[in-house]
């Protein structure tokens, strides 16, 4: 909450959400850039007295703005508006019995069965929403739509973007891991991914790109205007945008200095901290531009973003809306210690034909001498502009729109930037920078500039342009291009003064300059590159001009029309090619056959009798010399044994697992080739074994003394086999009295021998047929 002095309108106090007063003073040296700006103003001003009087105003404004920004920044740092990143969102038990949990921060934690924390892993900065485990791999689904695959030791095997929205559920079936996204989309991924299977598919599909590649063309109209806190007439907007929007599919507008002043900047900083933005003045501009573009019948606004005086908005023609999505915005303040939006940038990102385009409206440091600060402003914007979800996620989601090929990454993807540590803007297929960059003309006087302008000697003037010089030296806008300038400098003019005679003729006589520019980067590495899936966006400039007849501001509005070719994938054709490859490629067919293989295994016994808290060791041997065997032990049902040794009242256990009197450890695991797993089968002798006996409810003080019998089913499958299993059934009898031993000579003989441990000669290999099951049941039937 903010309190202002009613007389001076200075910001007096800022209260945080706990009701505590945040200090308003600033640490020394925190905002050296503001002091630099004041020094520049002193150096360039013509009247020292006027500058001294205005310095007090700027100093008071500085204290108010920096105080507000610093206060809300400290509150945010205390997580006053943040979430608890330690919250556990997902849990699963892996095949080896290790428990995995996932947190809101993206942290993955390993636990053992006793609750001891073993290891932490952090491969992604988004929240973990779900797990899926199969064989020796763990699949992790994130809120970003990303899937990562880990081995049981926690090593990252690979990752890709499966959906453009959060993954909320995963399941294994029919050789695939199916993922469900929050928007309702379901996709299937081969359980062998990532691996050789993906490499083969990628190689084969790449050779058939020409069959499923389509080239789309659209026009993008971009415009930038520093409106100097004024408002434009309908005629001005029509001259600037309306007259050029006839065949444009997308219209991008960037405005600077929509509104300024200490109060506006302080309120903007406060809004940004709590996730709010926009103003009535900004809305006025959006409404007026919308009317100019015939918003509704012709165009629809898909997004906008305001940061103090900076405003960007995008309109899309109605017949193109179906191809546009994933709209996201961002803002980067550059003023007053990188905290306030009097200078900075606002960005808007959209997906068009599954390609990512970013539009960035910038306003950099002013004054002739501030070249290095302008370069630093660009560098700060380019490196730190962060959208809601990284561009790599949206690009990968588009590339993985079919379940044919995943974008594999075996690297750390934590942090705000991409997996490779690159800024998000670098990952877009096309970026357009527009705005008041404030670069001036060097080494030329006011009169000389006016003479060259009147002669339209723009090529000569460009050699004096600071931006052109800095770009040639590689100091700013690296890898970004600009069309040839064929219009007069757009700054500085007297308002409402038409023609070139309107250049500043006052006491300061500011040298005309091309402050207002539009630059771009497409997908080309060289000018000769053609549009294709490896270079998906190629654009050319059909118009780059300034509207010199508009006089509503001291800047002239500038527009640039791009003709953009976009390579997209015809998904129906690619799916058809994918199916043909799977059916015809011999190597893939061999890999798919691996899904059906089940290693040969044997178990040490098919008959176990437990009494008086006995423990028996059940051994499962993997006789295969090449493949791991996955096993899982379940309880198929329980019966009660009467006095004659007859099994009665068979009840299926369903999803309830083992009875409370039996402990099987481990109940699942992986057996390496030519190895044996030892399973402990232990009797827990509780007074009460079941909640119901003969249909009558039992309480905790009742004791059921009748013998019980269950059938354990050992399900064995291969590493990638998700459907078929080879089952071994084992009879386990719980003897509550000695009567069973007397009635069952076999059981008595077993107990007299080696308790319940059988010799190697008693090992049997069982199948999953019902004949074997019946045979086992007949072992205790009269």
TrEMBL record:
<keyword id="KW-0479">Metal-binding</keyword>
<dbReference type="Pfam" id="PF23755">
    <property type="entry name" value="Ig-like_IP5PC_F"/>
</dbReference>
<protein>
    <recommendedName>
        <fullName>Inositol polyphosphate-related phosphatase domain-containing protein</fullName>
    </recommendedName>
</protein>
<dbReference type="Pfam" id="PF22669">
    <property type="entry name" value="Exo_endo_phos2"/>
</dbReference>
<feature type="domain" description="Inositol polyphosphate-related phosphatase">
    <location>
        <begin position="216"/>
        <end position="570"/>
    </location>
</feature>
<keyword id="KW-0378">Hydrolase</keyword>
<dbReference type="InterPro" id="IPR036691">
    <property type="entry name" value="Endo/exonu/phosph_ase_sf"/>
</dbReference>
<dbReference type="Pfam" id="PF23754">
    <property type="entry name" value="Beta-prop_IP5PC_F"/>
</dbReference>
<dbReference type="GO" id="GO:0046872">
    <property type="term" value="F:metal ion binding"/>
</dbReference>
<dbReference type="InterPro" id="IPR056454">
    <property type="entry name" value="Beta-prop_IP5PC_F"/>
</dbReference>
<dbReference type="InterPro" id="IPR015943">
    <property type="entry name" value="WD40/YVTN_repeat-like_dom_sf"/>
</dbReference>
<dbReference type="InterPro" id="IPR036322">
    <property type="entry name" value="WD40_repeat_dom_sf"/>
</dbReference>
<dbReference type="GO" id="GO:0046856">
    <property type="term" value="P:phosphatidylinositol dephosphorylation"/>
</dbReference>
<dbReference type="GO" id="GO:0004439">
    <property type="term" value="F:phosphatidylinositol-4,5-bisphosphate 5-phosphatase activity"/>
</dbReference>
<comment type="similarity">
    <text>Belongs to the inositol polyphosphate 5-phosphatase family.</text>
</comment>
<keyword id="KW-0853">WD repeat</keyword>
<dbReference type="InterPro" id="IPR056455">
    <property type="entry name" value="Ig-like_IP5PC_F"/>
</dbReference>
<keyword id="KW-1017">Isopeptide bond</keyword>
<dbReference type="GO" id="GO:0009846">
    <property type="term" value="P:pollen germination"/>
</dbReference>
<dbReference type="InterPro" id="IPR000300">
    <property type="entry name" value="IPPc"/>
</dbReference>
<keyword id="KW-0832">Ubl conjugation</keyword>
<dbReference type="InterPro" id="IPR046985">
    <property type="entry name" value="IP5"/>
</dbReference>
<keyword id="KW-0677">Repeat</keyword>
<keyword id="KW-0460">Magnesium</keyword>
